Batch of 2 targets.
Target 1
Amino acid sequence: MSNITKSQNSAQKFTKTISSTRKERIGAIQTLNDFLSNSTGRLTLDDRKIVVEQALTLLERSYVHLPLKKAMHAVDPIQRLRLLQLRLDETSSNKMDPELEFHKEMIDIFTSVRDLHTNYMLPTPFSSYFAFLPFQIESYTKDNQLHFLVTKIAKGYESHLPPTFKSGVDIIYWNGVPMQRAVEINANKNAGSNLAARFARGLQRMARRPMMTSLPPDEEWVIIGYRTQDGLDLEYRQEWLVSSTPLDFSSTDSSVGSENSYNIGLDLTTDLISKMDKILFAPENVIEDELRLAKAISVKNIIEKAEGLRSVMPQFFLAKKISEDIGYIRIFSFNLPREMTTIDFINEFLRLLMQLPRKGLIIDLRGNGGGRIPAAESLLQLLTPRKITPEPYQFISSPLTLEMTCRTTWLNSWTPSLTESVTTGSSFSRGFPITTTNEANNLGQQYHGPVILITDALCYSATDLFAAGFQDHQIGNILGIDGNTGAGGANVWEHSLLKDMLTGSKYELKSLPSNLNMRVSIRRNVRVGEYAGTPIEDLGITPDIRHNMTSRDLRKMLN
Amino acid sequence: MIKKASEILADMPVRQLDAVLSKQAGSLDVELTTIGISRVDTYIDGRPVLSQNVTDGTTKLHINTTSINVQMLEIVGLNTNEVVATRKVIL
């Protein structure tokens, strides 16, 4: 290896060359070193004690997967929190660990349950920042070996890179570690519940660290060893960059009664990364379309006036004709902003669907981290003559969940079985759907041709649900890029939502300091049809057919 | 990946069930275009009204409606007694 090129002042250079539309969304860019020099935590000892106490309440009294996780991953997050609580009780303000160490331990405890719904979310100032490297890496298989291709360079950053480092080069070393091993090491720090899910997130997070859910990288720069398409092995040094504008985190709507707050099934980190990737890599017109949609008074009017296969919701859909007979729709996310209705989302999908060929449809869910549960589940009806049975969701049986369902009208269906569990000892409540039977069936089948679904290990939660429904209602085959999906089988609620619901009860929660937040899997879902009763969590959706991505696949997408 | 997906789709049966409606007082004329369907059963507001064999191509149906306030026509396409396609039409 030779020719190490240092990317000095890359942050300032990037700020100057990025387009104004992107700059508006990404904000000022600084190096990780600058960020860490100017960002210190603000949590007092008492704040930390509250954080641990609230985490204990959430996990011990409401976390629906706790028994499964303790058994499946041989972990005990409750005991770890109690030990941390004890340590905090025995320390004093002037002797406590640096704040990042505290967050590191909390993240480690939450990650130990391998559940991407159950997150510790860092406080201000970290939560508003995003560390990234200005390129995207995807893997492919050749001769039974994994390879790692740079598929995209951030728009505006191309001129700051060595001329030989461009999309199409293979990354072979990462700080001197062979790339596959480096991804495996990173995978183990992530919460994916099965091996495929963990590896996919390890790769995804080699170059992206949203500090809302991840600690800043340990290293301030990375020495990247790469092989050019001409077969030259070279190295260059890339500093981590940090964007300072808070990304739109549209699922944070913790007011009771808001649709978004209680029907979400989302891998938050994947969603944040996906939003960042759009800003870094999407064509300018996609960024502009997204901004236009965000500012629109009526999404319905925009859909009614739309023509052609260019989606008015480019953050959600990409539609194209593959041939005279076959159409393709990629669904990037189900995480609708709070001002967008599920019906708007379905209508845009339907508008695109009706313009595609009728003899075959490919629905591509790769990288889709989930979102609003009814948005995902209501799409299934358009593709099948079968009546859709929405998946049922269950609470864990506990005094807290019983109290919560008693106090909240729209949760009353769950109350009788939670009351019964006091005498029956049942671990879970009975299950009731989040998507109503009417929502899941009111439009009926609209597309009658054959359909195939493409999944990968980044598919999570509401997207797992879509894939499960696709299989359970025998809509078509699933072609898997990985051996499993992300396996997120729950509805996730934030601490603030639970706090609102439990105000005035004996389980009343406390406010978290410094905009710190937590999420927890609150209701688990189980499958219907042939797999009725099988949980999705950890098990995921096994594809009917496997396909290992090839360099041809990736290079074709580059073009 | 797309090539493999396309090959799998090519081995799956193709169906079509399109309907163009003309509504009159007391009746409905329906022009169906079908592929891969041997029979259609029709329902108005959940009640069965007509069952008819079809072949690939266009089929015309005439459905008498007892009420003037009918709201939904549902067409169920079958092939060898298995439901293979449905379509709901708001009237």
Note: Residues 2-10 of chain B form the longest helix (9 residues).
Target 2
Amino acid sequence: MTDAYIVGAGQSDFGSFPNRSYRSLFDDAFDEAVETVDGDFDPDDVDEAFLGTLGVGGRQLGLSGPAVTEHLGLHGIPTTRVENACAASGYALRQAVMAVRSGMADLVLAGGYEVMTDTSGDHTKWWLGVSGETEWERLSGTTFAGVYAQMASAYLREHDDATVEDFSRVAVKNHGNGAKNPHAHLGFECTMEEATNAPDVASPLNLYHCCPTTDGASAVLVASESVAAELSDAPVRVSGAGAASGRVGLFQRDSLTGIPASATAADRAYEDAGITPEDLDFAEVHDCFAIAELAAYEDLGFCDRGAAPQLLREGVTDPDGALPVNTSGGLKSKGHPIGATGTGQVVEVFAQLRGDAHVQVERPEVGLAHNVGGSGGGVTVHVFEQVEGGEL
Amino acid sequence: MSGDADGSGVGGRRGIVATGLYLPQQRLDGDEIEAAWGTTVPVDRAAVPAADEDALTMAVAAGRDALGRWDLGADDVAHLAVATTTPPLEEEAFAPRIAAALGLDSALSTTTATQSTAAGGEALLAGVDSDGPALVVVADAPEGDAAEVGQRAGAGAAAFVVDDDADVVLEDSARESRDAPGLRLRERGSTDVSELDITTYERETVRDTVSTVLGRLVIDHDAVGAASLQQPTGDIPHRIGKALPYDAAAISSGTVVNDIGDAGAATVAIGLLAGLEAVDAGATVVAGFFGSGATAVGLGFEVNAPPEPGVGAAIAAGEEISYPEALRARGTIGDTEVAGGGAHVSLPSWQRTIAQRYRLVAGRCPGCGAVAFPPEGACPACGAREEFESTPLSLTGEVVAVTAIGQGGAPPEFVAQQRRDGPFAVAIVEATTVDGDGSARFPAQLTDCDVEAVSVGDVVTGELRRIYTVEGVTRYGLKFVPE
């Protein structure tokens, strides 16, 4: 079995682009990914593509994957559209890693795309809601913000020490990072006061505790060891791949304050990589709502249950802390183009491990990306490592 | 014309053995309407149904109240008689949904009385005329132009279990029918009740029809301690009473329109509950139902032991709302059709889960005993894929997680409701099984509550409410009201 390596990663601008098509946004992402390839890249060498999307607002439910690769000029390559809600491209990356590790492919394109902001507010909400548990959860009148807000209410009840200000700390930190990311959707800083006094979306979560609805695309080139050696001076090894499913409805799960599938996926990724959370130098975690970042710290083993607020208050996850989290700005500031988010996180991890990040962590060697579908129905966790000595 | 309702003699004297009542929580003070319109309003207060309430949900609430006060079970009901002038749809039976929500036997017979405010009397007679225990439910929520009938529109529901060997015996009943249209009508396709306001014609017709039908009852009219007479406004019963030997106090004790508003077919039925509650044992109570067209039903009861439906307490309870809030709740202002449609849960999918949506029927794993809700798929605990044994959850449970969905944040299928009812709370509720062995969680919308005041740990109880309407079909299900 060959290891899988990232040899290029890029993204389009994330934001609101009602005049762009999902195909043209993916062109941008692909072009940027190709620019990061150190060697001579020939598009004809791409063997296969796995592309994640929730369904681009319903306008192309079938065959949007081939529509993208044909538009891109990767004529004829097998393209599979991957759907696992907000974890669609985390799973697309997993497929690409499996294809390379199995030996079936040497160079695989993994990516994602979503266009959400060109339809009416009602249509967008309808479309966003289709990945919740429909028959019960959705028909109780809730939304994704509502489900995460329910988690937040249970978290505040279970951990006396936690406060709404801890949710705001996530926003302040991630906006601080995102303000330096030229691709970010909401690339501006915010103060604790702004992040605490914003209008409620779904109490206890306010506007600053929720990520935006974003258009965008991201692309990652996954290569076998031999191809990586050819194409890259500093490839990034996918050293751990973990994934897990969970009950789609929050009410169906034992834990209301964490995401069990995140914990399982992380365990699998750590085992695959042969590391523990202590070995991580930074992480990109799925902060669709502020409570999700707190839950991620605990689910991924960064701290004990109930200790996530402490990490935020002590600055442990700040860029200069012991374990920086979401240096890209996270979903909160960088944006959350559903299908593009998972591989979008890899764009940041790739940049960090090659020393090219906008908010650069000091000499990182091991990073993690954590991508959650819905409120926890499907999760991927990938561990990435610098190749010793840089080159293969 | 006089009928003998003393029963066949086989099972003893037939009458009311249990009563139930439901009034919507919201109350609109007449002063609010007077201030808005600069006019005198005919009622002191009116009960205003919430956006997720209608005649069907109120019928279920009153029916459940009556069944809870009866010493037999829902399974024992042999006949369901329902009455309303405001069925949720102009065509389609709505008694079956009430029966399903109350857990009645699917083999029972049903009658539905509608199309006039006399329907309440017709349903009571249908219950008396049936064999075995009958549940009679009268529920109504009339609407009208905000400057006219809408100024006194109220809402409410009364329920009666009718059986042999009753404490409240129907001594006699009578009917009257005559050609007298135009007193209260609603044109096809309209939701607004209107009146011609031909004052003398209307008063005379109501007075003469109702007093005639009551005069026909073979009862001791001097022993009448309470009378619930046709009461679109508070003065009409007293006008009718002038032609009858009842004193003003007896008429007042059966008059509720000033407190609940004009609740259509339900007003006289709720007035009957108030009258039954007001008298001492041994008294006679009469009810005089009238329907424009015209028809009248007179009922005379001998009260051997007065029931305690709690009308006074229910009237005293409730929460005052402003006039704009009432107009919103009724959909008079702000009603909307939302683009994008509702969630794609097909009607058959919804119907497949009716036992869960109406009565929280969960499943117990035959292998490990774990409780699953909804009872489908593999056992959440042991993973076995065996058929679950039915085990109902208590309709009262505890909030374990909760949020408030603010204006603008609702999924499209709840936007119309939110326009009318404002922000709503959505919780995950945990309830134990009725047998006490285990519990399960389910997501639930909360209703009739201050969304800001709801928190984890609150105890909530389920009530049937409108969930949402898509393609003309309203989905009903349980929502939860904090204690």
Note: The two ends of chain B are 49 Å apart (CA to CA).
